[in-house]
Amino acid sequence: MLDAAAALAAVIERRSVREVLIKDAEAWDALYGQLQDAYTRAFDKAAQDALKDALDRLRDLPPGAFTQADATHMLDVLEGRLGGAALSGLLNGPVINLTDALYRVGAAEVGTAAGVDIAFGRPDFDALKLIQKDNLHWIDNSWNARNNTIFRKALEDYFGDGMSRADLIQRFAEEFPALAAKGKVYFELLADHAATKTREMGRVTGYERAGIEYVQVRAHLDHKTSAICRNLHGRVIAVRRLSDQRGQYLDAVRRGDVDAAKSAWPWPSDKAAKAMGTTATRDLPANIGNPPYHGRCRTITVAYLPTGGAVSEWERAAYDREPLSRKQTTALIDHCKTASWRNAKGMAEHFDKHGKALWGSLDAYNAAAVDLIRRADRDVHLAVRGGRLKALFTRTETGRRSYEMAVVDVLGQDIETLHRRRGALSGAADTVQAIKQPARGISKWLSK
Ligand SMILES: [Zn+2]
Q: How far is the CA of 424 from the centre of ligand 1 (A)?
């Protein structure tokens, strides 16, 4: 069905793209490490200075009870050292340089994969200035956003305990490292987000310059993958959409409108993320496109390189969580009608496991699988499992709660199993949950 030469060319192309991705992943790792290091080192240094200043300040006071005025004063000292002005002063240089480098990694990764040199022009330098401003803004904001609360809470607790100034000095000196460590976690997260976001914005430039029109979302799938990344994995998104989203975001940054920036590039709630699982790509909200989709997000986009041919189209529809057209469904069914068991051993194993009691003989089991694929009164679904497109043929007889299901690996045209079961068609392990196709009632007359 697939043109062999085209398929081979696609495989070669994919392989060379992967090699490029791996190489640039190393450049990315190095820069990412440097950014995180810069953030946390600046914070560590500022935290040490803050502790010293705060303790000096306390020692200068006469012995007596720790008062609310002392607490307020200490917070002022801490803010002077750990607040926005102090930290963005320390980080200004590294943030500007590393933002530039991370943006270039994103652009270059696309350029190298596409065999195009990405030369930066005025729009890129304008964008870069805004991204640098944005990355510094979040550092500026960090005291208010998080660290202020950590230290304020501790001082309030001490105050509530009715301490003397001498007690406070000791307790604060003891507990400060743990409090500072909490603040450091926030800086790691901030650096992670800045690095990822910057690289992804650079990648958009790469797509634009290389003339790539569509990208595919590629999540890192394992037990830690978030709901949103699972639900967006594999979708094919227009580059124009990513450019628009980046434009909206940077416009908001230019205006200093934090709320608009957040809504241009949100971290969707769990509920919203869940709902996206069954939403067709074309119906996704306009502000969902570019990763990162949340903190510590490992999802990226890659240029979409269709292998050509019908299977690639069906796969794209499944990844976009859309049913095929009736015409495509007919072609899919025809494609699956010629499927056979990959090998006799696999077939016998499935027969032993869930076929013997119901179908009696191996021949009857095979005939039932073929019949289920071909007959008109069954339903057809597409799902993605383990990165492969599967067609699920199901039939429920009236009066029975269980149903028969035959699974065909679409690209390989392999029948993988036939069994009778109850419950949902797709499990949590399916990358794309089963999508019902418009099949019933049409295949009967088409196949005659
Ligand atoms: Zn993610």
A: 26
Sheet containing 388-395: which strands, arranged edge to edge? 340-341, 414-421, 403-409, 388-395, 379-385, 432-436
DSSP state, residue 164: B
Cβ pair 420, 360 in contact under 8 A: no
Instruction: Please give all residues whose CB falls under 5 A of ion ligand 1, grouped by chain where several chains appear.
Output: 226, 229, 297, 299
Determine the distance separating the centroid of ligand 1 and the alpha carbon of 295, expressed in angstroms: 7
296 CA from centroid of ligand 1 (Å): 7
Q: With the CA atoms of 366, 348, 378 and 340 taken in that order, what torsion angle do they form, in degrees rounded to the nearest 10?
A: -60
Q: How far is the first Cα of the chain from the last one, in angstroms, to the nearest whole number?
A: 21
Structure confidence at residue 25 (pLDDT): 75
Q: How far is the CA of 230 from the centre of ligand 1 (A)?
A: 8
Cα of 227 vs centre of ligand 1, distance in Å, is 8
Distance 174 CA to ligand 1 centre (A): 37
Query: Looking at residue 415, what is its pLDDT?
Result: 95
Q: What are the tens digits of pLDDT across the range 400-422? A: 889 999 999 999 999 999 999 88
Rounded CA separation 146/123 (Å): 34
Residue 172 Cα, ligand 1 centroid: separation in angstroms?
38
pLDDT at 17 > cutoff 60: no
CA distance 19 to 109: 11
Q: How far is CA 322 from CA 13, 290, 301, 409, in A?
A: 27, 20, 20, 19
Asked whether the predicted pLDDT for residue 373 surpasses 50, the reply is: yes
pTM of the model: 0.84
Give dist(CA 431, CA 357) in Å, integer. 31
* Residue 139 alpha carbon to ligand 1 centre in Å: 22
For residue range 245-298, list pLDDT tens digits in order. Answer: 999 999 999 999 999 999 999 999 999 999 898 899 999 999 999 999 999 999
Q: What does the pLDDT read at residue 147?
A: 87
For residue 225, the CA-to-ligand 1 centroid distance in Å is 6
Residues 6+ away with beta carbon under 8 Å from 136: 88, 91, 92, 95
CA distances from 377 to 89, 94, 365, 373, 441 (A): 70, 65, 19, 10, 7
Strand order in the sheet with 300-303: 236-238, 214-218, 300-303
Confidence of residue 448 (pLDDT cuts 50, 70, 90): very low
Q: Which residues of 258-284 are buried (b: 16+ CB within 10 A; e: fewer)?
A: eeebeebbeebeeeebeebeebebeeb
State how beta strands 340-341 and 300-303 pair: unpaired
